[in-house]
């Protein structure tokens, strides 16, 4: 199966979702973050942020999803969905095709960076007789459901390395694991920040299965090489060389002087941004282990920080958790895109140092 087809299907998914306008106006703005599967890292990070938002006596609903592409489009099109966690290669894919495809250009309009997060490991659990990435040729491999970041990353990696599978199955990791154990497939991809719950909460037979090393020079030139420490999972006692992709928290460019929905959403984005920055040490100590490797200054190329995020991380920002409502509504005009990232870096340096 040639992997131009999955990539074409991905572009079609984007195109069919792009006729939708920006999030609709509403009288109230409940807060939502779209994450991932119940066994993934995104949902655990979302729960960390939800607990943080409780300091404002305000809820942040954590919503399961198929993954990165669904999350990106949810921020773009779903009302009351202020945040989504997305893989950086999804952003690069969207950016690459936006110049030639007006549908993709419409999809990315208004979507902004909230915070860069952490590197996610490309896990490929495979039969022991498959020694390396090249050994996936002519095998039956689950590459993730079509609106997930795993699907995009797997498709890109296979295409870049010139590997053709006998069958590429659009299965979620939770569905792929039992099929691998039953001998119905040979391997499956899963992009998740280690330790991923699917591998820690299931007893995986180390004599039958292992994580594939990824040492392909082409892939290492595109994705960041990394080594997964031995003992990260019970079935994996030795270090494994693989590659990673960065996870990014995305939001929408709400207009702080727009309608009631935009104003309320902007306040929520600013408040959570303020809480993340001022509680980053607590997140690193008490949240998912991946918080320990978050680099708030590592902004993906070609994307800007949202104005409401910059407002929230300004050292002089007074959270609407405590300030009077009338004062909270007096928000400054958003800085231009060219100023957004510089302002973001100045603010994080002022608060946590650089």
TrEMBL record:
<keyword id="KW-0732">Signal</keyword>
<dbReference type="InterPro" id="IPR011852">
    <property type="entry name" value="TRAP_TAXI"/>
</dbReference>
<protein>
    <submittedName>
        <fullName>TAXI family TRAP transporter solute-binding subunit</fullName>
    </submittedName>
</protein>
<feature type="signal peptide">
    <location>
        <begin position="1"/>
        <end position="26"/>
    </location>
</feature>
<dbReference type="Pfam" id="PF16868">
    <property type="entry name" value="NMT1_3"/>
</dbReference>
């Amino acid at each position: 199966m040639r992997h131009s087809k999955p990539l074409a299907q991905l572009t079609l998914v984007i195109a069919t979702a792009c006729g939708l306008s920006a999030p609709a106006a509403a009288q109230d703005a409940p807060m939502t973050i779209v994450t991932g599967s119940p066994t993934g890292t995104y949902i655990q990070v979302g729960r960390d942020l939800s607990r943080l938002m409780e300091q404002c006596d305000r809820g942040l609903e954590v919503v399961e999803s198929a993954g990165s592409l669904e999350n990106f489009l949810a921020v773009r099109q779903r009302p009351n969905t202020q945040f989504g966690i997305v893989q950086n290669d999804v952003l690069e894919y969207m950016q690459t095709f936006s110049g030639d495809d007006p549908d993709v250009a419409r999809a990315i309009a208004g979507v902004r960076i909230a915070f860069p997060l952490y590197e996610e490991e490309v896990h490929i659990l495979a039969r022991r007789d498959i020694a390396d990435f090249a050994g996936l040729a002519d095998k039956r491999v689950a590459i993730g459901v079509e609106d997930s970041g795993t699907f995009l990353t797997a498709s890109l990696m296979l295409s870049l390395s010139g590997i053709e599978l006998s069958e590429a199955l659009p299965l979620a990791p939770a569905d792929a694991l039992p099929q691998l154990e039953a001998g119905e497939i040979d391997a499956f991809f899963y992009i998740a920040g280690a330790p991923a719950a699917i591998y820690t909460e299931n007893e995986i037979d180390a004599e039958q299965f292992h994580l594939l090393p990824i040492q392909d020079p082409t892939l290492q030139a595109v994705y960041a090489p990394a080594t997964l420490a031995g003992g990260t999972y019970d079935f994996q006692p030795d270090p494994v060389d693989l590659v990673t992709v960065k996870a990014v928290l995305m939001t929408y460019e709400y207009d702080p002087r727009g309608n009631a929905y935009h104003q309320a959403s902007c306040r929520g984005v600013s408040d959570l941004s303020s809480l993340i920055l001022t509680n980053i040490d607590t997140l690193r100590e008490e949240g998912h282990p991946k918080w320990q490797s978050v680099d708030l200054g590592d902004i993906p190329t070609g994307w800007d920080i949202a104005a409401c995020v910059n407002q929230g991380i300004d050292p002089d920002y007074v959270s609407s958790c405590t300030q009077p409502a009338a004062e909270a509504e007096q928000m400054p005009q958003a800085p231009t895109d060219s100023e957004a990232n510089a302002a973001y870096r100045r603010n994080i340096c002022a608060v946590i140092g650089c």
